[in-house]
Amino acid sequence: MKGWISSRGLQQTPKYLPCRYFYDDRGSQLFEQITDLPEYYPTRIEQSILENCALDIARLTGSCELVELGSGSSRKTRILLEAYDTLHNELQYCPIDVSAGILKTTALDLLNSYPRLKLCGLAGTYEQALAQLPPRELENRMLIFLGSTIGNLNQEECDRFLTLIQQALEPGEFFLLGVDLQKDISIIEAAYNDAQGITAAFNLNILNHLNWRFQGNFDTDQFEHWAFYNPIKNQIEMHLRSLTLQTARLEVLNFQVALEEGETIHTEISRKFHLPTLMATLEAKALKPLQTWTDLNAWFGLVLCQRQCIGAECP
Length: 315
Ligand code: AVJ
Prior knowledge:
Distance between the termini: 41 Å
Number of strands: 14
Order of helices and strands: HEHHEHEHEEHEHEHHEEEEEHEE
Structural class: alpha/beta
Low-confidence stretches: none
Bound molecules: N,N,N-trimethyl-histidine
Radius of gyration: 20 Å
């Protein structure tokens, strides 16, 4: 990973870090712990939606290979794998993750669980992976992006990302997207400020990751976790707040950063979506929503899209 990308955000005002730096091996473990927290509702609800609709999805797409962005532990994806295994007797899965550690453990677990599975993992960013997907082997393909990870992208990044998805898919192929929906603010804020402090540890770990990757000397005791809902942008914002006036070095980058007492580093946004607006955005990207599913409270949504032909692609 290019080092200058991480120091760039630390040279701006206000300071920020790319949120994919959360996911070193320790960060991926901490995120897995977050998904089990009582306050963190998205994973549980998305899982329950998938349990209800996985067979419908497998029926709508027919036999197809699954390619997942940000696959992590692939825990929820197992529900889809079961459905495709049951309905089509063919299983091809390509998990993609920036964390090579969790990718490898997960791949080995999955190969143990599903003897029929053909698997091809890619370690890297979405941009890197989408640019070099292996050629399709089954009659169709579905790109999967669960967990509302798309909420980590601001509007401009989201727009560019959906263009990449459009370009990575051929007409007729599918895109399955999981999104966290707008709801009572107190519920959302609690999910990012859990009582056990796991989210705080996850947020602070981004500095440990920088220390490890760039021989840094950030002292995580000198920072605190800060997460709140921004109602204007409909997003959770996570920051790290410096508790003192301090400096830190990233030796490998020959870079030094100074922080005032109270100064913040913005580490993540997690946008919460309005489903009809999102569907219109997808449609405008030639990713036509075929069907959506939500839980009874409409806290979380799943959208199955099909890539439409554009211009000269059309028969
Ligand atoms: C995995 C990116 C969707 O934004 O809710 C959890 C990450 N950050 N708690 C999210 C996260 C803080 C999570 N995503």
